[in-house]
Design brief:
Elements (H helix, E strand, L loop, with lengths): L24 H4 L7 H6 L9 E3 L1 H7 L5 E3 L11 H19 L23 E5 L3 H12 L3 E7 L4 H8 L4 E5 L3 H6 L1
Parallel strand pairs: 3-4, 4-5
Antiparallel strand pairs: 1-2
Helix pairs in contact: 4-5, 5-6
């Protein structure tokens, strides 16, 4: 049985914005890739995000229903950022394999089979204030890759330790987040 993923994008434009955004087909292409859902479902710990109904808040706001996504249990990371990191790394590795004359890995089994032996070990790097870096470190650990995460001076120790607990090396940059991105 073939599943079809239907994505509905809803948005509201700020009427006070000076320049309206350009929303065209190219802007949403990344959200229509057919490998996103199968890849995420190949992660053994994957589960759909529970939605919590907030009827009292909905009533207060004058809307029919209001739901909040509960990402607090996502992969034990307490954040949704791992899904984006997982897909970005998958696409990177697909491109690398194809450039080496290999084939694109099947997204439905990507996390249940070892990476090809001829694929070199990579170091995944990112700048973060916390959640994104932990997601990248988590993906690197799952795939047997190295992760180096750059964080700004003054980052909470708990965030640094959470990223290190995923096996990543953390480098503290003397500066704010913008300086960390440039490092």
């Amino acid at each position: 049985m073939q599943r079809t993923l239907l994505l509905v994008c809803r948005y509201a434009l700020n009427p006070y914005r000076q320049t309206p955004p350009v929303i065209d087909e190219a802007s949403v292409t990344a959200f229509t890739q057919s490998d996103i859902d199968p890849l995420h479902r190949s992660i053994p710990e994957y589960a759909p995000t529970p939605l919590i109904d907030l009827p009292h808040c909905a009533k207060h706001l004058g809307v029919k229903r209001l739901f909040v996504k509960d990402e607090s249990q996502r992969f034990g990371l307490r954040a949704f950022k791992a899904l984006g990191a997982s897909y970005a790394v998958y696409r990177f590795l697909c491109d690398e394999l194809v450039q080496r004359g290999g084939t694109t890995p099947d997204p439905t089994t990507f996390y249940s089979q070892p990476l090809p032996d001829d694929l070199p070990r990579y170091t995944l790097c990112t700048a973060t204030d916390g959640n994104h870096g932990r997601g990248v470190a988590w993906v690197a650990r799952k795939l047997g890759q190295r992760a180096v995460i750059f964080m700004p001076h003054g980052s909470l120790n708990a965030r640094v330790e959470a990223i290190e607990s995923e096996g990543a090396d953390v480098i503290i940059v003397d500066g704010d987040y913008d300086a960390t991105v440039c490092a």
